[in-house]
Amino acid sequence: MTGKSRDLLDEGARARIAEAIRRAETKTSGEIVVLVAARAGFYRSAPLLAALACGLVVPWALILLTPWSAAAIALAQIAVVLVVLLAGLHPRVRMALVPRSIRRDRAHEQALREFRTRGLCQTEGRTGVLIYLAQAEGHAEIVADRGVAARVPTPAWSNAIDTLLDALRRDEVEAGLTAAVGQVGTILAADFPPRAVPLDALPNRVITIH
Question: Domain containing 160 — which CATH number?
């Protein structure tokens, strides 16, 4: 998805997903955190680069295809650059100007950064798991701490990620996150059974970033 990011979850949706996290964690010693970001980056340089490229290409095209004077071509060049810059002010257009690989890399970097800064790597047994969603980029990722990664291979999360992305495309983010939380909880339960005395070191809440 490269369009305008949808509204983030309302209070009721966040509460229901938090309850899903609580239920999932009753079956495992793993700690699940959900983070939903409106976008992973603003990509402010994208319109500038696009305008520069258009400014370089347009004059040559006009020279080859039209009998216009140098002054007319210069004016057309300026007009095209201004149109691209103005269009790039719109989030939908700006996102469309960014290659998919760059959007994916930016979202991946943001997921790892959030994992570290939110303290998910400080749990006992290193069992923190982050379910990360960047809406504008259409990117979902599950980041697991080393205690979990040592037992659960990365491909094991693919179904949960696919479930979440399918729900995002249908504009059913809450349902997708709830399902993903349940799947992650089931995977964790297989290798990380619940403790006799639950720690619940990380709060069962949904973090949203606008």
Answer: 3.10.310.50
Spatial separation of the C-alpha atoms in residues 98 and 44, rounded to whole Å: 10
Side chain identity, residue 210: H
CA atoms within 13 A on the CB side of 7: 5
Please report the pLDDT score of residue 193 as a whole number: 93
- What distance in Å separates the CA atoms of residue 150 and residue 63, rounded to the nearest whole number? 61
End-to-end CA distance of the chain: 17
Decide if 155 is inside a domain.
yes
According to the model, what pLDDT value does residue 44 have? 85
Same domain, 194 and 104: yes
* Type and span of the H or E element at 16: helix 11-25
Give CA–CA dist 100/167, Å, rounded.
20
pLDDT digit string (tens) for 23-58? 999 999 999 999 999 999 888 888 889 889 999 999
Rounded distance between C-alpha atoms, residue 53 and residue 38, angstroms? 28
153 alpha-carbon distance from chain centroid? 21
d(CA 44, CA 63): 31
pTM across the whole model: 0.83
Strand order across the beta sheet in which 128-134 lies:
139-144, 128-134, 31-37, 206-209
